[in-house]
Amino acid sequence: MLLRVTVCVGLLAIGCDQLGPTNTEPPLPSKLQRDDAIALIRGLDIVGRVDRADAKLMTFDEYVRVAGPVRTHAGDPQATPTVGFGLTFGQDRPVWAVAISGQVWPSGRVPVIFGAVPPVSPTPYPPYRWATFLIDAVPGTFMVIGDAGVGDAWPTVFGNLPRPSRDRRRSRRYARRCRCHRGSASAA
Known about the structure:
Blueprint: H1 2-17, H2 34-42, E1 47-59, H3 60-67, E2 71-72, E3 82-83, E4 94-104, E5 128-136, E6 141-149, H4 164-187
Antiparallel strand pairs: 1-4, 2-3, 4-5, 5-6
Helix pairs in contact: 1-4
């Protein structure tokens, strides 16, 4: 009888290890929840109509590794973006990557003219179809637009970005469950 209990508990413990990843890193710190991050971006004056929105919490280094460097966009959606933004601090800094599709103006809706007032009012920029915004997760403030585009309706790279905070929470829950079963195995 004791042998059967030990074998059953052992199989349960082995099966528990196969339920999910064993990564037990703590979740990333963030002042905002996912819905708060999306609401912050929706409230920016450079965001118009929103057809779809999603957000993922990760480190800045994880974002750059998958999406590439931050790209600064001109008002003209057909212009080539400038690569790089000079963000070299805090590569492990937690950021929310928030993708928005609909109408986005990465350089503002209307050109900003410095100096003398132009003789006619400047033509408003056409909107981009999507953008990926980065929020500094610890203070919960908008950082920069990571990328924007007009070709597709949704940023294709967004699906490849990790969701480490969810995976880390799930891993800790599974690890806790497994430790509980292992503890009962040693007691049997």
